[in-house]
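Internal tracking record. Fields below are filled automatically when a chain is submitted to the structure queue. Please do not edit lines marked as system-generated. If the sequence contains nonstandard residues, flag them in the REMARKS field before resubmitting.
Queue: standard
Priority: normal
Entity type: single polypeptide chain
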Amino acid sequence: MTDRNYKEAYEKEKQRSAYLADRLSQLEEERDVLQAKLDFIHNSAFWKMSKPFRRAIHFCRRQATRARRVLHPRDLVKKLRYKKRERQASLQFGTASFPDPETARIQRETVFPEKVRFSILVPLWNTPERFLRDMIESVMEQTYQIWELCLADGSDGDHDYVGGICQEYAARSGGRILYHKLEKNQGIAGNTNACYRLATGDYIGLFDHDDVLHPCALYEYARAISETGADFLYCDESTFRDGSVDNLVNMHFKPDFAPDTLRGNNYITHFSVFSRRLLEEDAELFRTSLDGSQDHDMILRLTDRAGKVHHIPKLLYYWRSHEGSVASDIEAKPYAVEAARRAVADHLEKHGFRDFQISSTRAFPTIFRIRYRVEGNPRISVIIPNRDHREDLERCVNSILDRSTYDNFELVIVENGSTSPEIKQYYGELLGYDYEQALAAREGVSSSEESYDMGVMCAEEAGKAGTKVRIVTYGGEFNYSSINNLGAAYATGDYLLLLNNDTQVITFDWMEEMLMYAQREDVGAVGAKLYYGDRTIQHAGVVIGMGAHGTAGHTHYKHNFRDLGYMGRLCYAQNVSAVTGACLMVKKSLFEQTGGLDETFAVSLNDVDFCLRLRERGKLNVFTPFAELYHYESESRGDDLHGENAARYEQEAVRFRERWKALLEKGDPYYNPNFTLERCDYSLKLPGSTR
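SYSTEM-GENERATED OUTPUT FOLLOWS
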């Protein structure tokens, strides 16, 4: 580029910056005016007096919307079947899962090489008598007997019975129940720290004063420590109501350790057990400044230090739901939201992140969206395979050009055997010259020649809105992997964004949303949330082993776009085993180091295989629901369960199952083994089912 060109580019950017600054100033003024009007309305007597009526109207509207969804015959049948299945499956997780006398005897007599002593910390405050007795007895009935229960009591004078009950149980515990009456209530964090000062065990467990442990909980933890050497462990849990662990609601079956998932949502929570060594550099267990979300803060700190984080995929913790508990209503502790936000912020700062934003999502106030800063202004190469289908491609390209707020990208369209004059005309429109004539001239053939089977050719010009458009011709038989690999070879960007031609951008900042994860050194592939044209979900992450072929499947498939997902999973970024290649971003250097897409997977499973190879390199794959696009897949290709597609898919499935046999046998770490692989809606396995 000449000095003149540099000067012109500089002046152009200078003018653009000035325009944006003026526009920003205008928008800020408009915002201030609108805010003043809004404040005037909110402070008016009419607004205050009409509040009950407005709430009633909003309530009626919400109920009407829910009724329309629920009363749709197809949705109603689906919901009824799901509820029936879940009720049937949930029966195995209450008292039915408790050990029979013989099993309990065997567990009590089992001696592990590491005779771990567990210190279970329980901060007390005005605990109802029934809740207190249930909690203590659930510890005393553990089949693993090397434990101590550390109780710090901050109850007021109206609840003196709490101390009496604790001393009653302590007297017959053989010294294993340690009770300390605090001079004053110090809050959850302060009271728990007082418990910690009583503890002498090798491993610390955190237990709420109104909850219940499964009788085998400590046995399972001791066994896991013996087998894995883990220094931080957690299990699955469920809330229960009406005083019975057989009345389970909101069963939470968790993934294995997932850093991005934990940042967005404290999915670990109970029953957190960790080696005392992890606390050597801390004066206290909990930071009292984060009371209300002290557990999320502690889990973020200790999992950072842990050598091995282990998930026990068994429901071993029962969380009581009652009036005033966080399990019942987050509004009971509104300060917990701000504390959780500060805990995540501190964690991110320790990892070197700056200028990030943390906001609550529609799923739950303490389930967060995190916006990371995009470092620099790297170029993104959007690789779009195409054959004919002008309407699909034009819709895709126009949505990218019209809606994307990120502007440093190029389009690399990989042409594969198109025959329609319409698509050739469109290529010419994108490039700004007669594509057919240029192609024919390049190859020394007549411009009327329609054969595209001529190997590799690249044409490049400035396209719409100054975006660089590149047309690469792939001359072989259709092979999705080869086509994308060719596009990657011609790409000039720092990042590759594999994109199907039958997609359409919805969210304006979709590129930034994917890029902010892809730029991290610990991240491999990043995937988006994709919808069919009817706004049902096509992709929200891939689970290994799911589906009729036993290879891979999409979670929440065909769910309504409004759905929150299982435990809010459609509302925050999280780690997954794989994402679809229909919209996948990855560093170009990492794509090349990994060998690109495996060309032996010509049509299917190449994206999943690629993501698993990234995992082998120690990378995290991320699904973000905040990059949203339509994907009209079924309209252009159909599914893989019928006709020729099914036969072709099964051939590639055999190869996939052979390559990833060990992983398939072990199971997807981000999908709990208590879920069935025969469905994509996080349904539980039925008793006796293997899948």
